[in-house]
Amino acid sequence: xxxxxxxxxxxxDIAAEYLESIGHLILFRNYRKSFGELDIISIWHDxxxxxxxxxxxxxxxxxxxxxxxETKRRRMxxxxxxxxxxxxxxxxxxxxxxxxxxxxxxEVRFYSSIF
Length: 115
Hints:
Layout: H1 3-21, E1 25-33, E2 36-44, E3 47-55, H2 70-86, E4 94-102, E5 108-111
Parallel strand pairs: 3-4
Antiparallel strand pairs: 1-2, 2-3, 4-5
Transmembrane segments: 79-100
Family: Belongs to the UPF0102 family.
GO molecular function: nucleic acid binding
């Protein structure tokens, strides 16, 4: 497994543990379709949280929020809508698209409802 892939997996594990620690129920990890992916899907209160996890080296010169360009947002929404067709019971939940940034020191920064 490549180093970047390993660090991404560690980041997703840390993110899932964090979400559970604040009360989220994790439903899916790496929910993939041919047109996109949601790293973690969870429920908290009356919201369905679709979270992108970025295990990011802060010395890279830019912030992980910068990766949420229009194409990325469109793909995440498309996967979310596909999920609703597969599981209509989720339709009553308010969607929340989030970023979970895991620093190289394994610190968690949770950005909720970023778009």
